[in-house]
Design brief:
three-stranded antiparallel β-sheet; globular
Length: 276
Amino acid sequence: MVSIQNLHFAYRRKKVFTGLSLDLKAGHIYGLLGKNGTGKSTLLRNIGGLLFPDQGKLEVMGFDPGKREPAFLQDVFMVAEEFFLPNISLEKLVAYNAPFYPRFSKSQFDGYIREFDIPTDSTIQNMSYGQKKKTLISFGLACNTSLLLMDEPTNGLDIMSKSQFRKVMAGALDENKCIIISTHQVKDLENLIDRITIIDHGTILFDQTVDQITTKLNFKISFDHEEIKTALYSESSLKGNAIITRNSEGEESKLDLEMLYKAIVTNRDSIQSVFN
């Protein structure tokens, strides 16, 4: 689906990527995690053909995104963090934009609008920021593109809206679709993504599937001082110490994505050594 080899990109003199390589396949929801300003949005824009690599090879669904061929553009949709929607009704939004996407489904769009509790009798500019974002997400999902790029989609959403988002996204994936979600709000995606890529300053710090992570790592609360001392990562909590250890006995463990993210950023080598 997406093949990136030795990607180099810079904004004038500011280097973002120097030799980044990554392969993403259909049938998965990928979490692209990292702090703001680490290159997540830049990577999505390169994949979507909105920015152009300085060097390296980038292929998406067999296309060079930079050529922006119609067959490519009609099969990729990006929900940007910053966006503008005109002051029109939902009906006109669909009428003006849906023809660009051959697999757009009006019934799906209406279903997402109902799921997100978006008022259908209001023009877009009279909606709140969260309602506008949910409208854009609904449209992007209804386009049924093979590649869906989402940049910080939960920014501006309240707690209930985030829950709605996770529910909608969980039902949107199929074996022919690749969804890449970029975020720094890692807790919002904990039960949604099945592969985690952590990026920092244009470098991939970590790239593993959730199954691989929970097979090799154990996330738990411990009161054992020796266990806490030898843990790969530890942080104090109200109920003891939250720790990450090697899963040497094949225990079942629920992924704590936020703790994993902090462990990778602060102590990458100890975590990465488990997977080498």
